[in-house]
Amino acid sequence: MAQPDFRVLHIVSSLGMGGAETWLLQLLKHWRRSPEGAPKVDILVTSGNRSVFDDEAEALGARVFYARYSRREVATFIRRFRRLLRTGNYAAIHDHQDYSSGWRFLMGTGLLPPVRVTHFHGPMVVNVHATRIQRIFARAGGALLIPYASFISSTSRKLLDDNLLQNRWLRHIPKSAVYCGFDIKRFVLNPAEARAALRREFIWPEDAKVILFAGRADKWADIGNPTNVKNSALATAIGIDTALRDRRIHMLFAGALSTGVQILEQRIAKAGLSTRIKFLGLRKDIEQLMLGSDALLFPSRFEGLGMVAVEAQAAGLPVVASTMVPSEAVVVPEIFERVGLDATIDVWTEAILAAINRERPDFSECRSRVERSRFSISNSAKQLEAIYRGEMPCVS
Predict the structure, then answer these.
(1) Helix (H), strand (E), coil (C) string for 84-147
(2) What DSSP string runs through 356-390?
(3) Is 111 exposed, middle or buried (0-12, 13-18, 19+ CB in 10 A)?
């Protein structure tokens, strides 16, 4: 059991609607309910900006600090960061920004706590489209993990296998997949009531079949753009095709909007479907949306894990995801189908229609299976606490 003064510093870009940030909020809620001795959390925000979850994090007892991490302000960042380390009395530091954590560990030399966790939540910048300077800095940051990181974690074992276990320079560092857990109690709402409320909100008929897309809209509206990680343009094309085939089909996009949304909405309007396919922007009631929908469409081009797909299963919502979503995200296989990114729109449409019309397992059974998995917030928190105390079994 951790001691009452057991304090951990988490480092994130911002407290926005991302997977790492929502997980951190769930951890704060869990540890607040836990007996005395649970970790106390400080958060360093490297964008320097407040976002949607800052107030909530502070209300849950976290201390939030701001220091912009950029080449122009590196001296100021180092000064603030070292002051924080000097006064924070941390048992562990948990940096959620992959290779760039190596640079921050270097900046904290002499003041770092004994446990220093680097967390990979998505594709490493050295492997995706980035400038030459970004690649150089990322590789250098990765090299700095060799002397500084005491533990490497990632959102899935697949991410470890594909990117980290192959790096012989990092083999000596303990590492493990650490899943972003969530509180299953979020899904105790009545599905029938959620369905009715959803249809009332958008003035849709009672027999409407709703496809949900949950994730930020990509910047570009062309389907083949390799930087479109969430694949919202492909999802729009699938939604249009499915809605044209079946008059009952309606679709919701929940997530941050982008400059590409206007073009996607024009395509929807041209198909005569503006009243049936809608972009909602950010929503904090994702549980109700999931409980009220009939299928989750998740055609991502890349996912560290894809927590939204796990949450959907906790809601008993059938999932049609791309094969780029790691198989570790599958908890209830009866309601989970994976489709290749090279599949035609017609194949995706057939998969969505089949998911909507297929008989589902009992909702409570789906929720129970997820609660017993490593995705429950209690299991996720236990794993983290073991890492912070240096007790976590690892793969190498």
Answers:
(1) HHHHHCCCEEEECCCCHHHHHHHHCCCCCCCEEEEEECCCCHHHCCCCHHHHHHHHHHHHHHHH
(2) HHSPPPPHHHHHHHHHHSTTBHHHHHHHHHHHHTT
(3) middle
Cα first-last separation, the chain: 26
Q: What is the pLDDT of residues 254-287, one digit of tens each?
A: 999 999 999 999 999 999 999 999 999 999 899 9
Name the token pair of 382.
């236990």
> Is 13:20 a contact under the CB 8 Å cutoff?
no
Percent of the chain residues topping a pLDDT of 70: 94
**Angle between helical axes of 19-33 and 307-314 (0-180°, round to 10):** 50
Strands 115-120, 151-154: pairing is parallel
Cα 127 to Cα 49: distance, rounded to the nearest angstrom: 27
How many residues make up the chain in this entry?
396
Beta strands 40-45; 63-66: pairing state: parallel
Residue with tokens 């990092």: 170
In whole angstroms, what is the distance from residue 311 CA to residue 187 CA?
A: 9
Tokens of residue 251, six digits = 């679709």
Dmax over CA atoms of the chain, in Å, equals: 65
This prediction has a pTM of 0.87
Distance CA 342, CA 338 (A): 12
How does DSSP assign 151-188, residue by residue? EEEES-HHHIIIIITT-GGGTTS-EEE----B-GGGG-
Give phi and psi for 204, each to the nearest 5.
-105, 155
Q: Is the pLDDT of residue 319 over 50?
A: yes
Q: At 83, is the secondary structure helix, strand, or coil? A: helix
pLDDT digits (tens, 9 = 90+) for 142-160: 889 999 999 999 988 888 8
